[in-house]
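Appendix B, record 7
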Amino acid sequence: MKKEENQNNNLPKNWELKQIEEIVMKTEQINPIHLPGKFEYIDVSSISREFLRIENTTSMSKQNAPGRARKPVKTGDVIIATVRPTLKRLAFIEKEYNNQICSTAFCVLRNNPDLIENRYLFYAIQQPYIYEILKTMQGGASYPAVTDKNIRSLFIPLPSKEEQKKIVAVLHEIQKAIETQDAIIKTTQELKKSTMQYLFTHGLYGEKTRESPIGKIPESWGIGTLKDLCDIISDTCLPSNNSELVYIGLEHMDTASFFLNRVGSPKDVVSSKNKFAKNDVLYGKLRPYLDKAVVAESDGICSTDILVFRPKKNIPPLFLLGILHSSRFIDYAIQTTHGVNHPRTSWKSLQFYELGVPLIKEQQKIGDTLNIIEQEIVTHISKRTCLQKLFNSMLNRLMIGELRINNLTNFKKD
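Structure tokens (predicted):
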């Protein structure tokens, strides 16, 4: 890559444009026979694209290691996937992954500490222009990829080490705030899951339980089926005739969420869709293990891969929604799927799902209890979204010197 092709040429006077190759150290691949006896393997699928971190690894031994397991990583390294690079799968190697092994599908960047801070490098390659350039470099139609050489040829803006540290301090603090919100969201989601498990087997009032064909339920509860709680709505329409409504596709529904965080427009779709009304419950029938079900907060149209359930008279929508998100229902739905590549369930199968049914008053209170927890999750998701926007804005401005932090003295060293 030529220096002139870089998009960040208008930099502060004391900054430089440096090729990554000039500011990183050489890394190595190892022969499989020299792999450690046991190690954690970092594959492309280990990386969270949303959070840019390692979410999971696979414990391996030398004997069962895949052929791609050849790149050792050390604390402070930055790894970036060379396969489909525009998907932005990169991560910073934390202490827990020191001396572990990553796939050859990653380029491993190890900073030269005399020239660049490791976290500064991590943040610098998150800039949008990096991925625009990589997009032009990738080759292969069905398996687009770049090389390590391509990534090392990129130029990034480089201020003094002192200013790098200050930039890192600001961005890292925001990143830690985002991670705090992530932890709260995860904990609260686990609380919601365990609360649903308890409420649908013990109820709200601590009454004695009895054995039933579906397991333990409170003594006062009856047994019913899903079709006792709701009707299936099969009204269809053309998007062009309903342009004033919102459009909901599976892509707008988040796993385990009770409500929508975003919607689409009927102008973006063409084929026949399902119609729904406010307070209907929308359930994703494609890949039910994805656990997608929400309450509609307005009238609209949706994908035909979404079933529209209308709660029967007096049945609280949030109680019905809690049932659909329960682990027992998800397991049932998965067992009723058909199709290998695109497994779907159907109302024909789901309507016979058996469940414990309390009186309407207790249904309402169960729904209200779950909603309190859900609103707590929504609040923290909103906070995380705001922090992520702040991070993106600060990243873009700090990395081109538009925003300077020369007066910042109270920063934490990594």
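Remarks on this record: The first helix runs from residue 20 to 23. Confidence is low (pLDDT under 50) at residues 409-414.
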